[in-house]
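ARCHIVE CARD
Drawer: 12
Card no.: 0347
Subject: one protein chain, sequence and derived structure
Cross-reference: see card 0346
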Amino acid sequence: MTPSPNGADGIDIKFSHVQLYVDRVCPVSEYKEFESSLNKFHESFNPDSNDAEVSVDNICKGQQLWNSLQGNAEEKTAFVSHGRDVVKQLIAGFGFRVTGCYPDVPGGTTPTSTANTNSVLVTSSDPNGIQILVTSVTNDKGAEKLGEYYHHFDACEYL
C-alpha cells in the first residue's frame, strides 16, 4: 500500500531517534570544546580564492589555522578510518551539535553518577531533524550500585 501525502491511508511512519552503542563517550566538555574550535575555524578561515576552489595554498593555510586553534596538535600520522570518535565525526562532518546528555552533567564535566551508561544526544540544526543518541558503558561498578545490567553491551555468545 502506498501512503498518501497526508497520511489518509493510516500509514504515517516516523522515527524518534537513532541509537548507537560505542566503546567510549567523551565528557560533554570535550565535545563542546571541539565545537568551539570548529566555530572559530569557520569564522577565521578565509581562503585566498573562490570558496569552491580547492588549492594547495588554501589547504596549507587551513591546516596551520586548525593546528593553532587546537593548541595541542597531534603529530602527523597516517589517517585511519576505524576507531574514531563517532560523535566528533558527526560534529565535524555534518555540523551536528551535542544538545543533551545522560546522566545530566552540570557544567559539562565528567559524570559523577553511578549510572551504568553515559549518553550524549547529537542533533542537526533542524528542530525536526535527526537525533542520534550515542551510548557507552561507563563502568562495572554502576551496575552493581544501581542493580541495572544491559545485555545489549555483551558480545553475542551464539555466533
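Annotation on reverse: The CA atoms of residues 116 and 143 lie 5 Å apart. Residues 155-159 have pLDDT under 50 and may be disordered.
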